[in-house]
TrEMBL record:
Any one GO cellular component localisation term in the record: plasma membrane
GO molecular function term, any single one: ATP binding
PANTHER family: SENSOR HISTIDINE KINASE CUSS, SENSOR HISTIDINE KINASE YKOH
InterPro entries (UniProt xref): CusS-like_sensor (IPR048590), CztS_silS_copS (IPR006290), HAMP_dom (IPR003660), HATPase_C_sf (IPR036890), HATPase_dom (IPR003594), His_kinase_dom (IPR005467), HisK_dim/P_dom (IPR003661), HisK_dim/P_sf (IPR036097)
Native source organism of the sequence: Pseudomonas syringae
Recorded topology in the membrane: Multi-pass membrane protein
Domain HAMP: 181-234
E.C. numbers: 2.7.13.3
Protein origin, superkingdom: Bacteria
Membrane-spanning segments: 6-29, 160-180
Protein name: Sensor protein
Length: 487
C-alpha cells in the first residue's frame, strides 16, 4: 500500500487523539455528573426520612396528628411522593393519596438508591422502617422522587456533547493540518535542496540553522553523505581522467607506428619488426586493462579472497626473485629481515608487495638498498619498506595512494605505466585487514618509508604506534596522522 501524505497522516492522528481525549472527558463528566445528582437525591430523601422518623416520635399515639404532620412535610414537594405500608402490605398513609408502592421489577440499586424508568419518566426511591411510639408494628416507608428533569438534562447534555465533539474534531483537523504543515517546513527545505542537487553542486550543504533537533541529525547525516558523494565523484573523475591518460600513450604509440609503417612500402622484415613492437605494446595495454578491471572488482567487493596461511618471508623472497634482474640492472640491492605468518589471499598479498617493490625500484637511486622488514607484534603484523627515494612533498600526501597518481608530473609523460601506490587491494581475508601508511622521514630516520600493517578485523583502530585510524572509502593509505581503511 502506497503511503499517503505525511501532513495528512499527522492531521488524522491529531484528530483521532483529540476525539479520544474528548470522548474520555465526556464519558468521565457524564458518569461523575450522574453520580453527583444521585448523591444529592439520596441526601434529600435521607433528610426527609429523618424528619419523618422525628415526627413519628413526637406525635405520640394519635394517628391523625401523625398523618397531618406528614402531609405538611411532604405535600409542599410536587416531585416527591410517599407511601407508608403496614406489615400486611396495606397502605397506612400516602402522599399524594393516590400514590402506591413502587414496583421494583425493573429497578436497579445504585449508591443505596433505587432507580427505574416508567412511561418515559425516571424515579429514585429510598425505603426505611418507621417505628411508632405505640406497640404497633413498624411501618415500611417508601419515598419516591421524580427525577425526569435530570433525565432531560442529561439527554440535552449528550446532544451538546456530540455536537461539540464533531465541531472540535473538525477544528482540530484543520489546526492539525496547519501545525503539521508548519512543522514539516524544514523537511520541505531539505527536499528542495536535495532536488536541486546535481553532479556540479555536490559541494553545497543544507544549512542547519534553526531546525528542530529531530531533523538536525538527519541534515547532518545528509550533509555527510553529500561530502562522501562529492569525494567519490571527484576521485571517480580523476580516476577516469587517469585511465584515459594511461591508455592514450600506448594507443598513440600504436597509431603512430602504424601510420609510419603504412606511409610507404617497406621490406617484409620491417613489417615483422613493427608488428612485434605493436604486439608488445598491445600486451602492455592488455596488462593495464586487466589491472584496471582487477581494481574495479576489488573496489566493489566482487573479488572473494581465499584465505590461506602465508609465510611473509617466503612471499618476500619469491618476489625478490622476480625483481632480482631489474634490481641488478639498476644497481640496487634488495634486503629482507624478520618473519611472520598471516591468513590472507596469496594473490592479493603478492600484488600488494609487488606493487610496493615496483614503486621502490622506480624511485630508488642506483647503488642504494631497498629494505623490507617484517615484525610480528602478536596482535598485528607490520611489513615495513624503506628506500632512499625522494621525500614526498606535504601537498601530495593526501593523494599518494590514489589510483594512478604520481607525485612527479613528468612521470605521466613517460612510458611508465601502473596504478601507483593506490594499486593495493585490501587484504580483508578471513580475520585480517590491511593498512598502508606513508611515514615521512623523522629525526631518527635516514629515509622516508612505507609501512604495511596487517591485523585482525575485529580491531577498529590502528595501534598507538601508528596513530588514530580513520575509516575511509576503498583506497588504502594516508599518512602518520590518519590512515584510510579499505575494509
Amino acid at each position: 500500500m502506497k503511503p499517503g501524505s505525511l501532513t495528512l497522516r499527522l492531521s488524522l492522528l491529531f484528530v483521532v487523539a483529540v476525539a479520544v481525549v474528548l470522548m474520555i472527558v465526556g464519558v468521565a463528566f457524564n458518569e461523575l455528573s450522574r453520580h453527583h445528582f444521585r448523591a444529592l437525591d439520596a441526601q434529600a430523601l435521607g433528610e426527609k426520612l429523618e424528619a419523618i422518623n422525628q415526627i413519628a416520635k413526637e406525635s405520640g399515639a394519635n394517628p391523625e396528628l401523625l398523618k397531618a404532620r406528614w402531609h405538611t412535610l411532604l405535600g409542599a414537594h410536587p416531585d416527591l411522593s410517599a407511601v407508608f405500608l403496614k406489615t400486611d402490605g396495606t397502605p397506612f398513609f400516602a402522599e399524594p393519596p393516590q400514590s402506591a408502592a413502587p414496583s421494583l421489577a425493573q429497578a436497579t440499586q445504585r449508591d443505596g438508591v433505587w432507580e427505574w424508568e416508567n412511561e418515559g419518566r425516571m424515579f429514585r426511591a429510598l425505603t426505611a422502617s418507621i417505628s411508632l411510639p405505640t406497640a404497633s408494628p413498624p411501618l415500611t416507608a417508601w419515598l419516591v422522587l421524580d427525577v425526569t428533569t435530570h433525565m432531560h438534562f442529561f439527554a440535552m447534555l449528550e446532544r451538546w456533547f456530540w455536537g461539540v465533539l464533531l465541531a472540535s474534531t473538525a477544528l482540530s483537523g484543520a489546526l492539525g493540518w496547519l501545525v503539521a504543515k508548519n512543522g514539516l517546513r524544514p523537511v520541505a527545505r531539505v527536499t528542495q535542496t536535495a532536488a536541486s542537487m546535481s553532479a556540479g553542486s555536490l559541494k553545497e550543504r543544507i544549512p542547519l540553522g534553526p531546525v528542530p533537533d529531530e531533523l538536525r541529525e538527519l541534515i547532518t547525516a545528509f550533509n555527510s553523505m553529500l561530502g562522501r558523494l562529492d569525494d567519490s565523484f571527484v576521485r571517480l573523475s580523476n580516476f577516469s581522467a587517469d585511465i584515459a591518460h594511461e591508455l592514450r600513450t600506448p594507443i598513440s604509440n600504436l597509431r603512430t607506428h602504424t601510420e609510419v609503417i603504412l606511409a610507404k612500402k617497406r621490406a617484409p622484415e620491417v613489417y615483422e619488426e613493427n608488428l612485434s613492437s605493436n604486439l608488445e605494446e598491445l600486451n602492455r595495454l592488455s596488462g593495464i586493462i586487466d589491472g584496471m578491471l582487477f581494481l574495479a572488482k576489488s573496489d566493489n567487493g566482487l573479488i572473494v579472497p581465499e584465505a590461506v596461511e602465508l609465510d611473509l618471508r617466503t612471499v618476500i623472497s619469491k618476489l625478490f626473485g622476480y625483481y632480482e634482474f631489474l634490481a641488478e640492472d639498476k644497481g640496487i640491492q634488495l634486503q629482507a629481515s624478520g618473519n611472520a605468518s598471516i591468513f590472507a589471499d596469496s594473490v592479493m598479498i603478492d600484488r600488494v608487495v609487488s606493487n610496493l617493490l615496483s614503486n621502490a625500484l622506480r624511485y630508488t637511486p642506483s647503488g642504494e638498498t631497498i629494505k623490507v622488514s617484517i615484525h610480528d607484534h602478536g596482535g598485528r603484523v607490520e611489513l615495513r619498506l624503506e628506500n632512499p627515494g625522494p621525500e614526498i612533498a606535504p601537498q601530495h600526501l593526501d593523494r599518494i595512494f590514489d589510483r594512478f597518481y604520481r607525485v612527479d608530473p613528468a612521470a605521466r609523460r613517460r612510458r611508465e605505466c601502473g596504478a601507483g601506490a593506490g594499486d593495493c587491494p585490501v587484504l580483508d581475508a578471513s580475520a585480517w585487514r590491511y593498512y598502508l601508511v606513508y611515514i615521512p622521514r623523522g629525526p631518527n630516520d635516514l629515509h622516508p618509508h612505507l609501512r604495511a600493517v596487517i591485523w585482525p578485523t575485529n580491531m577498529t583502530c590502528r595501534p598507538d604506534s601508528l596513530g588514530t585510524a580513520k575509516p575511509g572509502p576503498t583506497r588504502l593509505g594516508g599518512h602518520e596522522t590518519g590512515c584510510h581503511c579499505a575494509g
